[in-house]
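Hey Z.,

So I finally got round to the magnesium ion thing we talked about over coffee. Here's the setup:
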Amino acid sequence: MNSEFRAGFVAVVGRPNTGKSTLVNALVAEKISIVTPKPQTTRHSILGIVETPAAQVILVDTPGLHAAGGRQINRALNRSAGASIAGADLGLLMVDSRGWKDGDDVALSRLRDARVPMLLAVNKVDLVHPKESLLPFLQQSSERADFAEIVPISARGGHNLDRLVEVIVAHLPTGPRLFPEGTRTDRGLAFRIGEVLREKLLMALREEVPYGLAVEVLRMEERGPLLLADCIIWVERKSHQGMVIGAGGEGLKRIGTAAREELESILSRRLHLETRVKVKANWRDSEAALRQLGYEESRDE
Ligand SMILES: Nc1nc2c(ncn2[C@@H]2O[C@H](COP(=O)(O)OP(=O)(O)OP(=O)(O)O)[C@@H](O)[C@H]2O)c(=O)[nH]1
Ligand SMILES: [Mg+2]
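And the result:
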């Protein structure tokens, strides 16, 4: 029986906004990775680990792949997703069922290059009406690449996710668990606190501000039952600082409260968030700043 156990890494990849993080959270049944309606929400590869009676599925949520070029951070995000693909046993390409876009081809070609078996998850089927109009899309998708399976799902609505897990497990290598039983993610407290705060900022702010935001958790301290976290919110321009803080500090207060309330429920503990907003001009183009903020691995070359 035990020799039939399966375990492996599944890189969840796709262009920005297709629902990768929503899927990882739904399968792990815990908020591991932040989700917003804005593209390029995820900026790191984040593990979400799912246990079934017969398998340990290690999902790797990745930053949305996009055409190369542009800012340093965009290259760093693509590299992070690329490294996750290279280390995976299986690639799960995620597309939006409302239509195949050029960006989907970018992601597909990265998976193809890695020569890993590929599954296709056609997400957001709840938005397709009537349902029969999905059929030509599924047919065309099957002609684009040699997918081992194509599974229509709704990550947000929880539709067909059991089937997707079944298909994933069937394509994983046999072997023992790779993480201790019960592990849900590789990310620690400070990371998760910074990310939920970033999610609330992304949701509250408009236009160009969100993309220039980064959160750094400088320090954490246990004070009895309370966890104190000291956070810096980095923005790219002085004018953005005021937009984050809001008139009389009200904006930031609301954002901080929303983050704290959600984190207290995820982590089941009381939290105090200290937040300051600082300017770091053009950090998205600076390798040193990207390293400081954890967006870029140190490289030897
Ligand atoms: N209607 C519908 N919306 C969905 C579904 N799955 C995800 N979404 C929404 O799509 C948006 C993007 O979801 P994310 O999970 O952040 O997408 P992502 O692929 O991780 O995006 P990046 O991290 O930017 O690459 C959010 O508003 C989600 O609520 C779905 O099955 N149906
Ligand atoms: Mg994401």
